[in-house]
Amino acid sequence: MLFSESFQMALTSLYANKMRSLLTMLGIIIGVGAVIALVSVGMGVRSNVTSSIASLGSNMLIVSPGSSNRGGVRGAAGSMQTLKYDDAKAIKDKIKNIDFVSPSVSSSYQIVYGNNNWKTSVQGVTPEFMSIRSLTIGYGSFVSTDDMNKRNRVAVIGTTVASNLFAKDNPVGKNIRINNQPYKVIGLLESKGQSSVGQDQDDVIYIPLTTAQERMLGITYVQSINVQVSSQEKMEQVQAEIENLLRSRHHIVAGKDDDFHVRNLTSLMETVNQSTSMLTLLLGAIAGISLIVGGIGIMNIMMVSVTERTREIGIRKALGATFMNIMTQFLIESMVIGIIGGIIGIVFGCAASKIIAQLGDFTTVITITPIIISFIFSVGIGLFFGIYPARKAAKLDPIEALRYE
Amino acid sequence: MTNKETRTATIQLKDIKKLYKIGGETVAALDGITTNIYQGEFAALMGPSGSGKSTLMNILGCLDRPTMGSYKLDGQEVAGLSDDKLAVTRNKKIGFVFQNFNLLSRISALENVALPLVYSGVGRKERLEKAMHFLEAVGLADRAGHQPNELSGGQRQRVAIARALVNDPHIIMADEPTGNLDTKSTKEIMEIFQKMHGMGRTIILVTHEPEIAACASRQLLVRDGKITRDEGKGVVMDVI
After folding, report:
1. Which of A374, B53, B64, B202 matches a 20 to 30 Å C-alpha distance to A361?
2. Where are the beta strands (DSSP E) in A50-91?
3. Cα–Cα distance list, B2 to B5, B40, B235 (Å)
4. Which residues, other chains included, contact A307 with Cβ-Cβ below 8 Å and sequence gap of 6+?
């Protein structure tokens, strides 16, 4: 007997019991739909977190000085003064696959404008900093190379600082006092909002690095160097090259500890990916349970169907149907429930995912993997839970079956 | 009329016994049946209910196996065959006609007739052509697309007969084929059986009505699991 004929026969008999077939499929529809919708929610959470980490600066390496250790007393991390502006230049010039290098220093000061004052973090940066942190200027301009060379007293301020010092006035062109020295505001940043760790990214003032080092802090070292690598794959290689370069520049012989650290955001990204993957898996597994419950529904209905069609089975056997003929007929029937239920479930799941995104102001990401997996699963479940009823049908004694009323 | 010795026996039964265990006691539904049925015979199996005639019918129809004894169908031993082999034998060699028609209610008359061909692996197109041919033979070509519940009892039984014939079997087994029919339909059906007999088919008919049995060329009376009377043995129609 041809497979396509058995398939047609299954469709005919499912069609004959439309309501029952639909109710049986409902279990599978809900199961597949739930898997797809919930996994898309999980994937949405993942992409949200990932993009917020990426907004910190993607492919970023952060070079910071090590802690000092004088006579057994260890200083705070970054307390060494060995990292210089020239180190940053050397990294930019000698190492490939780097987009931007931005050394920086920072300190907290009370900022004064007219009657208002506000304490915030003042960071000395180079023009590259804007690209590395994906900053955008709302009004005016960012710190320029010219500002760097001339050690100009200019400042670019964040929106939180602007609203606290200037209320609704346009701050660009005004003079503010940092550490009792006058600085001219040349730019206002666009709001970046909270960072993923809850820090206000708009509560900050940027001034030229050289100005900060020489005019404000009176130091010659830098507190950190941000390096943006051109691609994710090159991260490890570039990190190793930076470590080698700085060791040789700082004359650190083999066996001695580094006087700096190179950190990356990849490990953070990995942790986040891992935990959101767990979340997605958990949601998928919960939904998967409903798929199995749907499978038990199939078995239940197939058992009823076998009992109800005992006479039909008897007739078919009397006319020459073998064990395999009957087995195939019922297996295909339960598999068809799985296939049709799976397809409807996919449509419902995708629709549900879109609706969740609309209603909850939430990102959902539909990927092909859960669709394929849950479809294969639903067909498999139809097959698996169909085996027992199909076997029961195929093993019926034709005489008993023909006598069945 | 031809002498039986010149013909081979289609069915050879030798000391067939069918035993059931009921509450620790063994009951013999068939208690040693030995007989031959020849190609072209029209045999009526008679007997009161509980006589064992249905059990004998089931064994003859390869739906059941005897507990003991030998059953040769076309010279081939079938008493010990597996379920699947019996199914194939039924499909190829035996056509069934039942008292309650046993048609599938959800498919058309034509598809019902074609059903045995599904299990002998005939392609759909050829299957429906053959089925149509046999529906024509029983005069129901115009009803091919109707479902069984749209047909009268007599029409249903004619569909069932067409189904029994479609795979060109050696033997037609009919179990009380007129039991559910009115007088007119009964007459029609019996005419069809006699026509089939006239064409040289072997027919085994189970009935408890003497008038129906009278249509057959041979009457076998079963009582308490034994054949107690056998009249007209070996009488077969000449193939015209």
Report:
1. A374
2. 60-65, 69-70, 73-74
3. 9, 10, 7
4. none
Q: What angle do CA A124, A127, A129 make, to 5 degrees?
A: 70
Q: Which residues contact A121 (CB under 8 A, 6 or more apart)?
A: A106, A107, A108, A203, A204, A205
Cα A100 to Cα A106: distance, rounded to the nearest angstrom? 19
User: Which residues of chain A neighbour B87 with C-beta distances below 8 Å?
Assistant: 317, 320-323
| B109, two tokens | 């008359």
- CA distances from residue A308 to A14, A169, A322, A399, B77 in whole angstroms, order as listed: 13, 82, 20, 16, 35
| DSSP reduced 3-state for A204 | strand
Residue with tokens 């041979």: B218
In this predicted model, what pLDDT tens digit does every residue of A64-106 receive, in sequence order? 887 766 666 666 666 677 888 888 888 888 888 888 888 989 8
* Cα separation values, B42 from A53, B11, B29, Å: 91, 13, 24
pLDDT in tens, A356-389: 888 877 788 888 988 999 899 899 999 999 999 9
Say yes or no: B152 contacts chain A, CB-CB below 8 A.
no
**Residue B22: CB atoms within 10 Å:** 7
pLDDT per residue as tens digits for the range A143-164:
898 988 899 999 999 988 888 8
Q: What is the largest CA-CA distance in chain B?
A: 55
Q: Are B109 and B159 in contact (CB under 8 A)?
A: yes
Partner A contacted by B81 (CB < 8 A): no
Task: Enter the DSSP assignment of B143.
Answer: G
Three-class DSSP category at B51: coil
- pTM here? 0.70
φ/ψ of A363, rounded to 5, equals: -90, 130
Q: What is the pLDDT of residue B240?
A: 38
Q: Which two tokens stand for residue A336?
A: 């068809």
Rounded CA gap, A36 and A274, in Å? Answer: 20
Q: Nearest-CA distance from B226 to chain A in Å?
A: 21
Helix, strand and coil content of chain B, in percent to the nearest 5, comes to: 35, 30, 35
Q: What is the dihedral of CA B19, B64, A10, B122, to 10 degrees?
A: 170
Contact B119 A12 (CB under 8 A): no
Report DSSP state, residue B150: G
Q: Residue A156: phi, psi to the nearest 5? A: -115, 130
Q: Cβ of A11 under 8 Å from any chain B Cβ?
A: no
